[in-house]
Design goal:
The protein is an alpha/beta fold and about 500 residues long. The protein contains 11 helices and 22 strands. It has a 7-stranded mixed sheet with strand order 9-8-7-10-11-12-13. Strand 16, helix 6 and strand 17 form a beta-alpha-beta unit. Helix 1 packs parallel to helix 11. The radius of gyration is 25 Å and the shape is globular.
Length: about 500
């Protein structure tokens, strides 16, 4: 006979103490730290514990007893359910303080390297509608809130519960329907809502993640500061007439929304939504859009990586460029001759944005990236901007960046590295140490893995400058740029 699980406690009249990781807040109870989402420091709440471990607990707010004076009114009607903008209830100035502290704590506690005084975090000029890319899932089973489930008129079996929206944490097979998202220009809301309406009207099936059938599967929006819009629709053909239905939907979107300059689709029969290995079909317009930065133009395709906050990306790249060329009089090993243009390696170059951004002050820039389509875009970006001193190579970083590669293409004076959240592979770190550039500019979307990599580089490099940059308001995510100089 199984032992009856002990009920988890309800903690009453708790004062939330501080902001924690992953967009949560915390308080201390006895010898435990308790993490709670969707509240702010100073809130007095009743907390229902949902998980209890030896040293920590997790919970949810069961009741707000008294609201904190340090609080903002969320703009989004879906706040607290969607989970995408967990800090909309926290004033932006407080968000920046928390992110600055996050970078400091992670670089200090994980990196354990000597650090200079950090530069103040660069906040985003726009805190709403700042993104240039969003993806929405399409699902035949929408997620319901506990309040909705109490509605006696709700028919879980007879009604059409297909929806377009965001996946709910802990429910990969269900979508919470989104009617208005504030992360992107409002046009995407109109397009998404009309697609859902039209698809239901024509009896189009929505995708079932578990059973892997259903026609309408995924939407990806991109827009740019040139006014262009891209929409990629993923379908999953099951029935003989599915392709015809897909064409009808595409034609309706093209006619209803002439603002979309790049309308693309794909039949994805895989078990996941990734498109890197799929052949995409252009229904209308071009298969790319353009972004501009200073006097440069960048081609961005559906498979390309481009920073999702266009305006803030410009400031991020300006920091990276400044770190490449700023004088370092206290670093004898830097040996920078202002009259000699450096050879720069740009690792994880994406569509070559940083590489082309710094090329006019370099003798040559060599970019390396895993995604072949992004590398082709990087080459085109150099061509359309009349930049002739760049070379780009596609492949796994640890396989391409070898001693033989460096011997062939030249030993770099500067390495710029902008890896994914997992940071750099140990082999890549080893090759960087062997290449011995006089300085390294490390751009990171994850200060925790950046801190780990800084500790690996610490034997030969010291940190000269640290600049946090907020790319994603209302979320706990933060970018960080670190300048390192060779010790000797």
């Amino acid at each position: 006979m199984s032992r009856k699980r002990k009920a988890l406690p309800l903690l009453e009249n708790i004062t939330i103490e501080a902001v924690a990781a992953e967009g949560k807040c915390l308080f201390h109870h006895n010898d435990c730290v308790v993490f709670v989402p969707f509240c702010v420091p100073g809130d007095i709440v009743d907390v229902q514990v949902t998980k209890k471990k030896h040293r920590y607990m997790e919970g949810r707010v069961a009741r707000f007893v008294e609201l904190s004076p340090v609080r903002a009114t969320p703009a989004c009607q879906h706040f607290g359910i969607c989970g995408g903008c967990k800090w909309q209830n926290l004033p932006y100035a407080e968000q920046l303080k928390a992110k600055q502290q996050q970078v400091h704590d992670q670089l200090t506690r994980i990196g354990k390297v000597e650090l200079p005084e950090f530069n103040p975090i660069m906040g985003s000029a726009e805190t709403l509608r700042y993104r240039n890319k969003l993806e929405f899932g399409c699902c035949n089973k929408r997620w319901f809130t506990p309040e909705e489930l109490q509605n006696p008129d709700l028919d879980l079996n007879g009604q059409n519960h297909a929806a377009i929206g965001f996946h709910i944490t802990g429910a990969f097979d269900k979508i919470y329907p989104i009617t208005q998202c504030w992360l992107m220009d409002d046009l995407h809301n109109k397009v998404r809502n009309e697609i859902e309406r039209f698809a239901k009207e024509m009896g189009m099936s929505f995708y079932d993640v578990k059973e892997q059938h259903g026609l309408l599967r995924n939407l990806m929006f991109r827009n740019s500061n040139t006014g262009e819009w891209m929409l990629l629709i993923q379908f999953h053909y099951d029935e003989p007439d599915d392709e015809e239905k897909a064409q009808q939907l595409l034609a309706h979107v093209a006619e209803t929304f002439p603002q979309i300059t790049s309308l693309i689709y794909v039949d994805n029969q895989k078990g996941n939504d990734t498109i890197g290995d799929l052949e995409l079909i252009t229904f209308k317009g071009t298969d790319f859009i353009y972004e501009t930065m200073e006097d440069l133009k960048f081609k961005v395709g559906p498979k390309s990586f481009y920073q999702t906050n266009t305006e803030q990306a410009y400031h991020l790249y300006r920091v990276a460029r400044e770190f490449c060329f700023m004088p370092l009089p206290d670093c004898p090993a830097d040996n920078q001759d202002n009259n000699t243009a450096p050879l720069i390696y740009d690792l994880y170059t994406g569509t070559g944005t940083i590489a082309n951004f710094v090329a006019h002050r370099a003798s040559k820039v060599i970019g390396i990236e895993y995604v072949p389509e992004a590398i082709e875009d990087a080459k085109v970006n150099s061509q359309i901007n009349n930049i002739t001193n760049t070379s780009f190579f596609a492949g796994d970083m640890k396989d391409i960046l070898t001693e033989d590669f460096i011997s062939e293409h030249g030993r770099p004076d500067i390495i710029i590295t902008d890896p994914p959240r997992a940071g750099m592979h140990q082999d890549v770190v080893n090759v960087i140490l062997g290449a011995a550039p006089r300085r390294i500019v490390y751009v990171s979307c994850n200060p925790a893995t950046q801190a780990r990599d800084l500790s690996l580089l610490d034997q030969d490099y010291r940190v000269i400058s640290v600049q946090p940059v907020d790319m994603f308001p209302h979320t706990p995510h933060v970018e960080n740029v670190v300048l390192l100089a060779r010790r000797s």
